[in-house]
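Ticket #4471: structure export looks truncated?
Reporter: QA, pipeline team
Priority: medium

Steps to reproduce: submit the single chain below to the structure queue and open the exported record.
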Amino acid sequence: MNALSLPALPLAYWVHDLSPFLGPHWGNFGIRYYGLGYLLGFLSAAWLLTRYARAGRSLLPPAKISDLMLALVIGVMLGGRLGSFLLYHPDQLLHDPLSFFRVWEGGMASHGGMLGVAIALAWFSRTEKIRFLHLADLITSVAPPGLLLVRIANFINGELWGKPAAVAWAVIFPASPEPLVPRHPSQLYEAGLEGALLLLFMQWRFWRSDDVQRHPGRLSGEFLVAYAVARAVGEVFREPDADVSLILGLSRGTFYSLFLVAAGLVLILRKSPPLTQPS
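Actual output as written to the record:
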């Protein structure tokens, strides 16, 4: 859809004018909502893990939660950053390797972050002798708040905008390509689907079933499939990056999510011994 094919538009649409910084800033330095989203996401995850331990539904000792969170922070940051380059902009890493360290310019990939989390969990599982699939169930159930907050930060940043639209809640993003037209606030759609909806589903599954104990890995599988579906729906409304090609006619976000579906189905269908003790 282009500007010429849009139906008659209302008299006015909101023009995005939000600052990516919370409070004062100096050039590129200041408190960014994007970084704050990650911080609050990790803190909310730690709080939920503490609740799980106190309720007797987790084999992760409260004293080890901070160690796990540190491993996850490293996994998310390195995985997300590497994933952004390798999955979306591999040429940039070759021609400008120092851009990897310019984090203020943005560039995090959720699929890369998930791979980084998996590697961090594997290391922690082996070190602390806690079953990997149990840790995976715990972490996937506490991940959605972070996804919610980071997608909201994407909207505040005025990035990852949606396709042209004529809905009443469409937004004009000044950083989007010319000519400027109203677009879907797809970041908020993704916040609702990948964040809020997935949070409700995962918390309901965690507290209202005994699958964490009886079928380790099932919740992780359900998360991967649900996230992939939510991401694919969000991609319908999201404008593909101008410098990123499609794969088999699919956006890269949708294409990479197919691997999550495959991994999720394997976890859901596989038989795993009940959780009785760390192993």
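Status: closed, not a bug. The export was complete when the record was re-opened. Leaving a note from the reviewer for reference: The radius of gyration is 20 Å.
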